[in-house]
Amino acid sequence: MSFLAKLFGKNPAVKASALPGEVVGLGDRAADVTGGAADGEFNPTLRTTGYLSELFGAHDVASVVHNGWVAPNGELPAIRATWNGREGAGRLDVEVLVREGVLIEECFAGVGESEAGLNDALANFTINSFHVLLAALWGQNDASQVTTEDWRLQGKRYTAYIGNFGTRSSDVTPEVPSGLFAEIEKVIKLEPLTEETHWFRLFFGNVAGQHTFEALRDNETWEVGEDCLKAMPWASSDGCYSVRLFAVLRAT
Question: How far apart are CA 2 and CA 38, in angstroms?
Answer without folding.
Answer: 34
